[in-house]
Design a protein that fits this description.
single chain; about 220 residues; 7 helices
């Protein structure tokens, strides 16, 4: 079911009551902080699995196991799927983080002023010395979460390269390796499901409720 439109006037009507607006701002700030904490916990979760897959891949490449190629292809597929899942989770986390940031933008003016929206920055550097120091140690308007997203994309591309590296050379006269084909197809389907079935539900909810009946029977 499509989402309903929500106007600026409706937002003010719902949240700009003096008491409600203050409480809404406090909740928005708290949930934003919570979303940022979850963002980095999720990053650590994916780095654990991806790092283990990398370690396993390197160990397999250094070994003389008979099924070395099979294990390499399998680990590459696992790494690629987890890395692409990390890309999707980063984007989903960013979406919710920005949602609460926009709520703060809307609510803060009448309570604490435009504190969150006003950005204080250094004056532009002047002279070769200042410019050099600024380039080396100065602040820069870079998004930490966007850099993390780029890293996750890079790791996904790297796993795809390792997968191609692990596969045997393509020959028209060679038979089809159904094991490799199955792994790759399942990995691609998993990534497609992330984008298709992993989307946040935006429709309405109509709840079916039940209640238990409990009583003491002394008979």
């Amino acid at each position: 079911m499509p989402q309903n439109d929500y106007s600026q006037e409706q937002y003010k009507q719902d949240f700009f009551d003096e008491k409600r607006r203050k409480e809404a701002l406090e909740h928005a700030l708290d949930i934003r902080k919570f979303e940022i904490e979850l963002y980095w916990k999720r990053a650590a979760y994916f780095w654990t699995f991806i790092g283990a897959a990398f370690a396993g891949f390197i160990a397999v490449q250094a070994s003389a196991a008979d099924n070395k190629q099979d294990l390499s292809v399998m680990l590459s597929c696992i790494g690629a799927v987890f890395s692409f899942a990390w890309v999707c989770v980063n984007r989903g986390s960013k979406q919710w983080q920005e949602n609460w940031e926009k709520h703060v933008d809307m609510l803060e003016d009448g309570i604490i002023g435009p504190l969150y929206k006003v950005v204080l920055a250094r004056r532009p550097p002047e002279g070769i010395k200042e410019i050099s120091m600024h380039l080396v140690t100065g602040p820069s308007p870079l998004s930490v979460s966007k850099i993390n997203q780029i890293i996750s994309l890079y790791v996904t591309a790297l796993w795809c390269c390792l997968l191609v590296y692990s596969l045997p050379p393509f020959k028209c006269e060679a038979g089809v390796n159904w094991f490799y084909c199955s792994l790759i197809v399942f990995s691609i389907l998993a990534c497609i499901f992330f984008l298709w079935l992993g989307r946040t539900y935006g429709g309405g909810f109509w709840h079916k409720a039940t209640i238990r009946s409990t009583e003491i029977n002394n008979g």
